[in-house]
Design goal:
The chain is mostly helical. The protein is built from five helices and no strands.
């Protein structure tokens, strides 16, 4: 049942008076016991609806937080995998360059000093290239880590905004719950005064309307 239909039903039970209006201090001309029971059931349903809204808002906030953390962890894993791959490629390139250099050095040793000088140049070039590849790989890894960190901060920042909005909704629902409890308390006190009962309902009874709806209203004293 929606809030508008629920308010309309309460309005009909009160003879055209909305439950959002302030209850007058004088007692009401009560309808028959069935109408009293229906009014209590509608107010109990309003309490249950408010509780369900608050539970749904908390569940949605927890889901958004879990999704954001999972996404951030996946981004971090992907960045680590890219970094590890770049390091492996750099290590392989360096290993290949060293193997090539050693082979050239053996060949150059067999051919005179001129060949040795050529080999030394090749070794120097290979080492420079290997260092360049290693530097590029490290730069790429650092860039991937920075990108992952930035994306993680963006996700967490977005989550903080959504969490603030959900917190506002929760506070609004809590205010709605307090207002309905106050109206329910006033309504029940008016019902008891009209029935000639002096004892007012306690806060525990107001906070647990389900138990009163199950037992029904107290019989009128003769």
């Amino acid at each position: 049942m929606t809030d508008s239909r629920m308010k309309g039903r309460v309005k009909g039970l009160f003879g055209g008076t909305s439950p959002d209006d302030e209850l007058p201090e004088q007692t009401y001309d009560l309808p028959d016991p069935d109408a009293q029971r229906q009014a209590l059931e509608v107010l109990v349903l309003a309490q249950r609806t408010a509780d369900e809204h608050m539970a749904s808002a908390r569940h949605q906030a927890d889901k958004i937080r879990g999704d954001a953390l999972a996404k951030a962890e996946q981004i971090a894993r992907d960045a680590q995998a890219h970094a590890d791959g770049a390091r492996r490629e750099a290590g392989k390139a360096l290993s290949d360059a060293r193997a090539t250099a050693e082979q050239v050095a053996r060949d150059a040793q067999a051919h005179a000093d001129g060949a040795r000088r050529d080999a030394e140049k090749i070794v120097s070039d290979a080492r420079a290239r290997a260092e360049e590849i290693a530097k590029d790989a490290q730069a790429n890894a650092d860039g991937l880590e920075r990108e992952a960190q930035n994306r993680f901060e963006d996700v967490v920042g977005s989550l903080a905004g959504k969490r603030a909005a959900l917190q506002e909704q929760i506070e609004s629902l809590q205010q709605f719950d307090r207002d309905y409890r106050a109206r329910l308390r006033s309504f029940m006190q008016g019902q008891l005064r009209a029935l000639g009962v002096d004892d007012s309902p306690s806060n525990a009874e107001i906070q647990q309307p389900g138990s009163m709806a199950a037992t029904g209203p107290a019989p009128a004293q003769e």
